[in-house]
Design brief:
89 residues, mainly alpha, 62% helix
Length: 89
């Protein structure tokens, strides 16, 4: 049985989604430049993923210190990632 064109499209989109947290961090920072007020929505549209999925990706990148801490109610990073802060001390 041949996969449907719809399934092919879904597989292609999954293959294009960022797999590594460093890719997520890079994509998030790029989205902040192009759409500073809605980077999550921008990434969700770009990767054809739900906003909840993108939030999980971004949180995982934050947990790995690839992105700075979040600021409630604001897009972006509140401070440098903890890993970079430790190096400067």
């Amino acid at each position: 049985m041949d996969p449907s064109p719809r399934m092919d499209e879904r597989l292609r989109l999954v293959a294009e989604s960022p797999r590594e947290e460093d890719q997520v961090a890079e994509a998030y920072r790029a989205a902040l430049v192009t759409d500073p007020h809605r980077p999550i929505k921008r990434l969700a549209e770009q990767y054809h993923a739900s906003e909840a999925t993108v939030r999980r990706w971004v949180q995982r990148a934050r947990d790995m210190d690839l992105l700075g801490e979040s600021v409630p109610g604001r897009a972006g990073e509140g401070s440098r990632p903890k890993r970079q802060q430790r190096r400067r001390k």
